Amino acid sequence: MIRFAGTAFVALFAVTTASAQQADQPVLKGAAAFGDWRADRPGVRRLIKPEDLPKPDVTKSTSNSAGLAERPQGARPRLPPGFSAELVASGIANPRVVRVAPNGDLFVADSEANRVRVFRLAAGSAKPAEKGIFAGNLNQPYGIAFYPPGNDPQWVYVANSDSIVRFAYRNGDLSASGEPETVVDDIPANHHWTRDIAFSPDGKTLYLSVGSGSNAASDMAKEPQGGLDAWARSKPLGAAWGSESGRAEVLAFDPDGKNGRTVATGLRNCSGMTVQPATGALWCVVNERDGLGDDVPPEYATAVKDGAFYGWPWYYIGDNEDPLHEGERPDLAGKATIPDVLMQAHSAPLNIAFYDGKTFPQEYQGDAFVALHGSWNRGNRTGYKVVRLLFRDGKPTGEYEDFMTGFVASNGNVWGRPAGVAVASDGALIVTEDGNGTIWRVTYGDGRS
Hints:
The protein has one helix spanning 228-234; strands spanning 3-4, 28-29, 45-47, 67-68, 83-90, 95-100, 106-110, 115-121, 128-135, 144-147, 155-159, 164-168, 181-184, 197-199, 206-210, 249-253, 261-265, 270-275, 282-286, 299-303, 315-316, 320-321, 341-343, 349-354, 368-372, 385-392, 395-404, 413-414, 418-423, 429-433, 438-444. By secondary structure, the protein is an all-beta fold.
């Protein structure tokens, strides 16, 4: 049962100022940037470069999942000075992606419950004035997109683990008026199931992310049928085969699902996509492979270049060869595109949103927020926070900053696992987390729009 924030439940959380690192303090670099959750606090900045990577297997791979705790009495997210958070709702089964409709409604993928929820907040408030189940009987819904782009969409697209469907939509609909229409089907659904979608600014292209079917393609045959040379000549650069065919890729379609093509390969699990408002570029946040040690390889966020290969499974972060595939693809050496922003390994980025609101301080304009779900394959846990990627003149600096922390209850337990981020129509940042199934509204100043 969902417990909505009302008089007895809503608390305007005070920000922690004493622990916030000021922007003019040194940026953590190299090994100092790897760290773990103990070093996390709003304002801490990191810069990880490709040359900072240690060798693989320096530390043993470990299974170190955090336990899930109830949100302790009075526990609250920690934010930079001037920011505060209000609880929108709690007790949701599995809130993941959150997207904002043109009229301001929040569409939330409740993935384990196989439905999409809608929340309409009261003006300048975290309190839901109305709510609804927009659609049910879905299959692990995740990505949500409105079409055509603009103020008067006619459709809501939803990415299931195995298909993309769309529902007829008019601004203000709290429930779908008709049955879903399948746009893309036969998407491979095992292992990584988080399918995100986004439209190009002109509405002509529907992007779809499809994660890999394994950690590092250890069971994939060394060569495809017909031989490697013939495969490489006929397929996109870095395309995998067998059970991984069409996976670890970003695909593109016409809005009706026709004319499918591959945009980029070697993206192990692009679990979150968005279009950068300033440039129109498509961005992905990517979960890299496990099993190579605590700090190898970094997770990353990157602009997705058409025709690019990002390494998986043979290479990572440029020309670093995965030991599991040593010597298998010398033809790909030097051809892997290096991502734009590297983040702590195993942090599990799930979603990204660029800030184009008007209520945060000016220095936040054009930056991006990323939800880090948290590690399971790292001896010293990391993630469980929302970070801010820094941009200058529309280009990433490579630095990122802790923005929303405090979800870790103890060394062994967490009460929150950030999953979705979106910028509301009033400039607030909306954050979902699926540890305790909560949704938060983050504002600056008095939070009024």
